[in-house]
Design goal:
SMc04008-like_sf, 6 helices, mainly alpha, SMc04008-like_domain, SMc04008-like fold, DUF1244 domain-containing protein
């Protein structure tokens, strides 16, 4: 690996840490369902991608471990502090977004 590869990895890691801080600490009031509606991903998706990246490097990680790595605490604790039940309007918007952008 050359110096440029190390720089790229360091920059990407710093951007990931900033995104994680923004979503978990700076803007915890933004609900996961709203992220899914607008961006097509949420904090849980980020944790899934984190776990997939770990596993691609031979590191076994559970879903709960990945979520704790992303949320900075057990998911159930973060959810109890910051997440609310989805409203009927949010659920309808989510369904519409899913139809408009199927995976």
């Amino acid at each position: 690996m050359n110096e440029t590869d190390h720089d790229t990895i360091a920059i990407e890691a710093a951007a990931f840490r900033r995104l994680r801080q923004h979503l978990m600490q700076d803007r915890p009031e933004v609900q996961n369902i709203d992220l899914m509606i607008l961006a097509g991903f949420c904090r849980n998706c980020l944790a899934d991608w984190y776990r997939e990246a770990a596993e691609s490097r031979g590191i076994v990680m559970t879903r709960d471990e990945a979520r704790e790595a992303v949320y900075g605490q057990p998911f159930a604790q973060w959810k109890a502090q910051h997440q609310s039940e989805a409203t009927p309007q949010q659920l309808a918007a989510f369904e519409a977004a899913q139809r408009a952008h199927p995976r």
